[in-house]
Amino acid sequence: MNKIGSLIFVLVALNLATSQVIKIPIEKRIPETETNGSFLDDDQQVAVAQLINHDQYMYSGNIEVGNSKQTYTVDFDSGSNLLWLTSKNCPSCVKDGYKHSYDCTPEDGCTLTTTPAQVTYGDGSGVKGHIAKVPVSIAGIAPVTEALLLVEQSIRNGNLQADGLMGLGVYDENNTGNVAFVNQLFKQGLITKSQFSFYLGFGKTESELTIGGVDESKLANPSEIYYHPLVLNGRTDDSQRWRVAFKSISFGNKQIPMTSQNTGIVDSGTSLAYIRNDIYKEWINYLKTITKLNPIFQGLSVFYSVKCGTTLPDLTFTLTDVNGVDRNYSLPSSFYILNQSGTCILGIQGNSVTGDLQFLLGDVFMRRFVSVFDYTSLSMGLSVSVANPASAVVTKNHRNGHLALLAIGLVALAGLIFLTLRALRK
């Protein structure tokens, strides 16, 4: 072998040695605090308030930012594109409870641009600021230059427990060439495959984000992972999402066919699963024929609870894979019935249709199926996970403790009054 050939061999070997699959532990935040209302509010209202609090029900892990490699805890979100952290000059961020802000300085490798940006979420919360460019690394590997929304205004994000959010979208239009963070790692030879995958468990600390591949130990059957082509819009910007077409939805003996325009996303930034309103109403009406559903009103939304321990029929989503084969993904009721402080609530909600994005399959769905997002083939894979509903952490209702203390106090007061009256009679 000549010297040039030897050099190429060494470089290839070095690249393979540094390429890796990165497993990042992510933690499920369990709401254990009171709601803002009175502790005498209805138990089921409190249970729903805990359930829909997106600030509590996210999965978060760590990234390193800047030349100083400061560590920040971020929520990993497959349903959005931008990475954002709060600026040190953000009064509303302090008010909303953010504890760690980022100071963008040239010494730390950060360049602040004049490009404005904002993110708005479905519950009306959001952030506003300007784009910065900064070195970002994960799990200690070499950093890549990543667009960062430096937040200057926080909107309705009270009690957010993370420092920010990292969007894991298909493209990032604020990066050079619109290349998203994970795809940048691949192009620089830092990971073996241009993909990431989520395993979401029921326990607080068992979940993980895998960058560069799939952790097969989290698959019930490693030979059964099926990929589904993305529905492409012809653009390479933030408007392109990890969107796939649905073939049908089934429950009981009923199958509702879809068209190619009936699409949805698997979204780690959404706690529940949302299905098209007309299908949701039909499903609820079907469930009412086989069990008792208790409506719980929360604002303009209606949630339903069932007796804890109830088993309901699977809700099945059918998608066509890249080989043209229909694959069924059945969600058992042990995954979609969520025990909140002893109140068991259906984790499926109706979704008002805006365009052709009609389904948002969040954590309720993702705990059943490991989800894989592939940049090279522009596809999304699904495989049954090893997550076990029996390991679920039941949220605590601290308000019940207050009620117990109140009861004890009333008993003690009654006893004191009795003793006082008895003493006066003597």
From TrEMBL:
* Sequence ranges assigned to domain Peptidase A1 in this UniProt record: 59-383
Q: Which organism is it from?
A: Tetrahymena thermophila (strain SB210)
Keywords for this entry? Answer: Aspartyl protease, Disulfide bond, Hydrolase, Membrane, Protease, Signal, Transmembrane, Transmembrane helix
- Its recorded name reads Eukaryotic aspartyl protease family protein
Q: Indicate the residues that form the catalytic site.
A: D77, D267
Family classification = Belongs to the peptidase A1 family.
In terms of Gene3D superfamilies, this protein maps to: Acid Proteases
**The organism sits in which domain of life?**
Eukaryota
Which cysteines form disulfides?
A: C308-C344
Which SUPFAM superfamilies does the UniProt record give? Acid proteases
Q: Name one GO biological process term.
A: proteolysis
Transmembrane domains' residue ranges: 403-424
Q: Which residues form the signal peptide?
A: 1-19
* Keyword hit for Disulfide bond: yes
> What molecular functions are annotated in GO for this chain?
aspartic-type endopeptidase activity
The record's section on PROSITE patterns has:
ASP_PROTEASE, PEPTIDASE_A1
